[in-house]
Amino acid sequence: MAEITLDKLAHSYLPAPKTDADFALKEIDHVWSDGGAYALLGPSGCGKTTLLNIISGLLVPSKGNVLFDGKDVTELQPEDRNIAQVFQFPVIYDTMTVRENLAFPLVNRGVATDEITKRVNDMIGILDLGAKADRKARDLTADEKQKISLGRGLVRYDVNAILFDEPLTVIDPHMKWQLRTKLKELHRQLGHTMIYVTHDQTEALTFADKVVVMFEGEVVQIGTPEELFDEPAHTFVGYFIGSPGMNILPCDVSGGVARVGSQDIPLNKGYSGLTGKIELGIRPEFVSLGAGKNGMPIQVKSVEDIGRFKIVHAQLEGYPVSAMLPEGSSVPADATAYFDTSRINLYRDSHLVRGEAAS
Amino acid sequence: MLELKNVSKQVGQSAHISDVSLALEKGSVNVLLGPTLSGKTTLMRLMAGLEKPTSGDILMDGSSVLGVPVQKRNVAMVYQQFINYPAATVYENIASPMRVSGVDKATIDKRVRAAAELMKLTPFLDRTPLNLSGGQQQRTALARALVKDASLVLLDEPLANLDYKLREELRTELPKIFAETGAIFVYATTEPHEALLLGGKTATLHEGRVTQFGKTIDVHNHPADLLTAQTFSDPPMNVVPVRKTASTFAFADGSIGIPHSISGLSDGDYSLGIRPHHLMLSQPAGHALAVKTEITATEITGSESYVHLNRDGLRMVALMHGVHRMNVGDEVTAYLDQSKIFVFDNQSNLVLAPQAQHAE
Amino acid sequence: MNKPYDNRAWFLVFPVVVLVAFSAIIPIMTVVNYSVQDTFGANKFFWAGTEWFVEVLRSDRFHHALGRNLAFSFIILAIEIPLGIAIALSMPKKGPWVSVCLVLMALPLLIPWNVVGTIWLVFARNDIGLMGHTLTQLGMGYNYATSIFGAWFTVILMDVWHWTSLVVLLCYAGLSAIPEDYYQAARIDGASKWAVFRYIQLPKLRGVLIIAFLLRFMDSFMIYTEPAVLTGGGPGTATTFMSIDLVKKAIGQFDLGPAAAMSLIYQLIVLLVCYVFFTVMSNIDSDKPQAGGQQ
To answer: For residues C70 and C76, what is the distance between their CA atoms, to the nearest angstrom?
Structure first.
């Protein structure tokens, strides 16, 4: 267990990077606290795997340092960093039983036999693998194999961090829930620092205390799931988090009112002197529908009924807008839209602008 | 129309597909929903003619196609892995099925460009697939399936290897694009959410059997049996075993009166199912079955909270609106609202599904 | 995966069937025919029943030849398999040297048996051969024509030189199929080089090793050309393997009956040993059927 410091870290796969665009990972400078659960979230090619490989030691960064509990480990090999890693495809030792798989990292480190037996038995209990402990690991299902990969990290009580590289990719949806809750339970029980890389927002948000959203090699926001949902710092975060993502509408702002096309939308915060490209962001959860003369007229393009709620795709002043309606509600023929004004965010050149509370 | 009549596929000792009958209409979207190894891929291979059923018949527009080799069936298939010709340009990749069938150059050019436009591939036509991202590669494979003008389009988890957001975009586009061609569109997935977004019709699969086939939202709202309900629920549906005596369902420390519509039900063991978003952690207005539970984990997505509960090994999930931080280990009472429950008999068949509410 | 069934496929196989019939089935039937009959020439045959089989199986000459064959195959496998794995492990995984190594490895495989024999025949000669001369100068008393050890040493060396590459190439292909994640996980688990080999590489190589084993066993068990070219089976009968003995018997002595019987026994031994090898090797560490049965 350790605090992880990323000290002015940057990486380029090119030998002599010149411009900013040459960097697969742009400079990041953060301290991740001991025992925290962090998720690195972003689309493929955003640099999240690069960052993970730097932390695990598979990659030496072009710039900056990685520190575990203040100790510089930038140049250390993965085996010398005392970390554990779970990969996208489960890695198990085919010829060994479940028990032997779990004992392997301890045997390699010369831990005493009784200690190994004790810890492995504990781990088998924790992972609910009791019935299969003496089976060959290769006959297990994908989720059980993934548990073993995780268990091999956890038996070494003292690991600095456990890294996950899209660990649920090959797991069926139902098993994903079970594995994820197991992971949460383990994190709470054992308190390891965990770093979880994924492109799946649900996995990231449900797993992590802090989500690190990455886009084009840059960390665009680090925050709790709530912060990312309520106040995305960048329009990309708004779009990427939430399904469907945040509605982003170009607008002009003057005197406490945002104007989208010919529609005036009152704001409940004051913004002064906004210049540049101004956009209004509102999540589909906070768009409601009405009918008739009230509200802003929209043209409904399609409605998806997904049981728990309905997703309405519509056009407002020529811009696409989606709304989420509760289960069982119907879409009026001459639909209009309302925005929950307390949930509106404003963006200047894609970055969040915080307004002052209106007096 | 594609019809499968009592199709079974036996491989050695194990039945990969057992007694499947389906009728798929022209221009329709059909989803095969089921977990890994439930038989989705085998069923698609049978439809395509890549495999022959052990028994049963497959008919296209009324005549059997069992004797017709794949090459002559006018089928397009897209797989989970991105399969393209690595050395050929995107343009050539898309054009390849038309080149094989000897379409004239001008038509090829027109159709390739149209398909590329739909799949947002126009800027990449001169590149080779190796220089494209995963999403672009899969769009190339999809465009190739599109220009083939096939009467049967089979997509086997085509978006599984793509990024979440990209999946969202393609998922809404795909059915529209293919429905316009008038083809029979079959889409295999493991994710209930994806099935709902695709709409159309859904066949739920479990261990090689189709447990139900019908309009997607109907299958979701009225699953014929517990297996279908479980397959078609993410997070998994909560199931509480209860005993019915007289006019009540009882579970351990609590009971509720049985809904009016099934008052004639005979006594015995039943299962109550309730979707996570209907499981309440505070007493609802109507009648509800109270179950004392312990919190095992909470997951917060920013706008919603999943609360995982445990009652002596009976695991349940409640999906709550908003952010609720709850302490693991705390005792809470979960309520199954009488108006939201599914009732299954001891054969796991549906006895009662909740009425779809029309709020407002 | 099941493939669609199409009877027309038989037309494609037909030419091969004809070829095999003429090159294998008919000759084998002829051999079977010879093995149960006696002849005193002039194409006159008498029924001999199992007489030849009994005679061959009881003859010391056969036992000795069989012993030599088994010893030879055993030594060959004991050298070539570990050596092949070792070379494959030490070959580069990527970079420009990969193709250089692969070409070098493939080179011996392209040379025909009798050419290999001739190359070594010259190479190992005491007077003009580089190796033979050097060893003699070093006072090793090396001579393949007179010393039993020298003859065996040379034949084994020839085979190892000729065929280890096959094992190397098979293993190399097997090793390249192991995902990088496995090595990373093993590093993180603190596994030693030996543990990585024992628990990752060796298990993943099992499939190709079975093939390498079978190929090398069958081929070495049927060794003929190299000793025939080098020593003609000598000195004495020291390198008279079964194949050489068979040729002596059939063509040298024209004992067609015993030779036919012997060749059938020979073939059965090869099939039997291959079968045993395959069953044993495929079942090592595989508890699949049992595990399924127990649970």
So the answer is: 10
Rounded Cα gap, residues A195 and A149, in angstroms = 15
The single residue listed with the structure tokens 């003929």 is C224
Residues A191 and A172 grouped into a single domain: yes
Return phi, psi of residue C111, to 5°.
-95, 130
State the pairing for strand pair B342-344/B268-274.
Answer: antiparallel
* pTM confidence score: 0.82
Which residues from B are below 8 Å from A172, CB to CB?
35-36, 190
Same domain for A75 and A157: yes
CATH code for the domain defined by C61-244: 1.10.3720.10
DSSP secondary structure string for all residues of B210-242: EEEEEEHHHHHHS-SBHHHHHHT-SSPPEEEEE
pLDDT digits (tens, 9 = 90+) for C13-55: 888 888 888 888 888 888 888 888 777 666 677 777 777 788 7
pLDDT at C291: 35
What DSSP state is assigned to residue B207? T
In this structure, which amino acid lies at residue C177? A
- A215: part of which helix (H) or strand (E)? strand A210-215
Q: What interface predicted TM-score (ipTM) does this complex get? A: 0.83
Q: Does one domain contain both A67 and A167?
A: yes
Residue of B nearest to C2 (CA): B51
List the single residue in C187, C199, C291 with the smallest CB-CB distance to A93.
Answer: C199
Q: Which of A49, A79, A197 to mutate to test the interface with C (most CBs of C within 10 A)?
A: A79
Distance CA A243, CA B164 (A): 9
Task: Based on the fold, state whether residues A199 and A262 are members of the same structural domain.
Answer: no
Q: What is the pLDDT of residues B154-174, one digit of tens each?
A: 999 988 888 888 888 888 888
Q: Are B183 and B302 within 8 A, CB to CB?
A: no
Closest CA to B28 of B268, B238, B199: B199
